[in-house]
Amino acid sequence: MQTIIKGEDNDNLVVAKRQKIANDLDFLTSYLHARYSKMALGERAYELCRIQNIIDLYQAIYPDKGISDITEFQRRCVFELISEIYNFRMYLSGTGAELIDLVLTRFQIENLKVLLRAYLTGIPFEEINRYIFYLPEELSLNISGLVKAESIEEFIHLAPKGFIQESLEWSLKLFNEYKKPFFFETGMDCGYYNELIKCVQSVPKKDSEIIKPIIFQEVDIYHLMLITRGRFVYNLPTEVIKTLHVEGTRLPKRFFTAMLGYSDITSMAYQLENRVVDYLPSEYGRAEGIKDNDGSILETLAWKRFCHLSNQAFRRSHMGLGALLGYIGLRRIEIANLTTISEGIRQKLTPDIIRRHLIVHTDKEETYV
């Protein structure tokens, strides 16, 4: 039996039915190392920045696809990753399989976020349909029902059962007076990362020691954005933000709460070195264009650390679950960079400017302008 995940261009990707054909992690990781050599990372990503025509970029990445639209290109990148991860599942069992199921659930949550934004802001479904990812049947949403929901309570009732629906119900109680997408999205993120931390705690020690740094970093990026947006953009009360903290990472609640006490992002940022970012460049807080309450630079630095940790896990765990999670992390960075490059070419930015916005781990400090 096979499952077809349909793409928007009728170029269907065939992936294995969700039944374990072999618990063969050795075979899977061997494939990953072969696939890694073809990824658009590091120097290859830099080379792609030299492309001046958006169609040439599409051809460089998908030479056999007739892609002519930037949204289609970006969605294709994500679609390929979803299909790839979905295939990984059949080689795994136990906690490894549970972890991959959660990784796939992340895409379901992203689809729900798109629908939620449209619902809360009144944007017609036709305008956001192109931003919905195609998913396996077991991760599909009741899109027609969600689009027609007559109240936020009905929308939540139609959301996937379990922690996603529970997180939305909790968000409705906590942020009842706000009714803005950020608050419901943050609630779902909080629920997801709590589940992720619980799952990784049950992974065998030989794998968990390699996996935990990647997972903790992703959760701490969530913590970082929760502070920079919740505290400095939405000016939420400290007590409310504290309820959204996820225990078990390199930002314990006591430290996280202390971060909320700073009056600006720049002052707070220096406390995050070697926890969420590897280092702050010497120009940070002084370079032209850096504003006190601009968290985007910190977010980029945090993702660079995530890239470094994913690469480290991929290389340390040559034939283990760490290699799989490291690979998925690197693929996510690859897609983020391809999105950045495609947007940069579309906006006619110079190659040097595009390169500065890529997430590429280096051991040397970079100048942020």
Would you write up a description of this structure?
This protein is mainly α and 369 residues long. Helices cover 60% and strands 2% of the residues. The chain has 17 helices and two strands. The longest helix has 28 residues, at 94-121. The termini are far apart. Mean pLDDT is 87; it is low at 1-22 and 363-369.
Distance between the termini: 53 Å
The total of helices stands at 17
Unreliable sequence segments? 1-22, 363-369
Q: Decide which structural class fits the backbone.
A: mainly alpha
> What share of residues is helical?
55-70%
Spell out the helices and strands N to C: EEHHHHHHHHHHHHHHHHH
Described by the principal axes of the CA atoms, the overall outline is: globular
Largest sheet, in brief, is: 2 strands, antiparallel
How much of the residues is beta strand, in percent?
under 5%
- Cα Rg: 21 Å
Q: What is the number of strand segments? A: 2
Average pLDDT metric: 87
Strand order within the widest beta sheet: 1-2
Write the layout of secondary structure elements.
Layout (H helix, E strand, L loop, with lengths): L1 E4 L7 E4 L8 H12 L6 H6 L5 H8 L8 H19 L5 H28 L3 H4 L14 H6 L3 H7 L4 H12 L6 H21 L3 H27 L6 H5 L10 H7 L5 H5 L26 H21 L4 H26 L4 H6 L13
Antiparallel strand pairs: 1-2
Which key terms come to mind for this protein?
single chain; 369 residues; mainly alpha; 2% strand
